Amino acid sequence: MITLLADFLVAVLLVATIVSSLALSRKITRLKADEAAMRNIIAELMLATETAERAIAGLRTTLGDCDRTLADRLRTAERYAADLASQVEAGEAVVGRIGQIVDASRQIAASESPAPAAAAREPVANARIERLSAAAEALAERASKRLGGRAA
């Protein structure tokens, strides 16, 4: 009877061993499937990382190009600004000289009252002086309007 009981106990232990072996086999199968999935995920991540590194390198190159282009354009703009400032100063000097010419021509015209004989001899010269004076006045007025509009 003890042998029968020992055989029965061995049989129960064998069944328990078989059941636990089957359970472990299923778990191992799932782990291998998960391992394959993990390998695929790792491969995809590596590919994505390489793509991102190439994109970053391209962005760095583009950023360097943009930086150089912007620096060139800034230097050009600074040159244009300096040229424009010097031209504005020269224009203001010209307008000032034109104003002085207009003032001088007004003073000359007011101080000189030509004799009738001299006026008769030089009508062309007087007409030229009057036209030049009118043109200088118009130019001075336009320049002062522009300067007034720029200051506003």
Which structural class fits the helix and strand makeup? Answer: mainly alpha
Task: Using the alpha-carbon principal axes, give the shape.
Answer: rod-shaped
Give a quick account of the main beta sheet: strands, pairing sense, barrel closure: none
- Give the uncertain stretches in residue-range form: none
Ends apart, CA distance between termini: 121 Å
Percentage of helical residues? Answer: over 70%
Beta percentage is under 5%
What string gives the helices and strands in order? HHH
Count helical runs. 3
Q: How much is the radius of gyration in Å? A: 51 Å
Please tell me the overall pLDDT: 85
Query: How many distinct domains?
Result: 1
Tally of DSSP β-strands: 0
What this model shows, in words?
The protein is mostly helical and 152 residues long. The protein has one domain (36-151). The chain has three helices and no strands.
Describe the SSE topology:
Elements: H1 2-111, H2 116-121, H3 123-151
Offer a quick outline of the entry.
By secondary structure, this protein is mainly alpha-helical.
Properties at a glance:
152 residues, mainly alpha, 3 helices
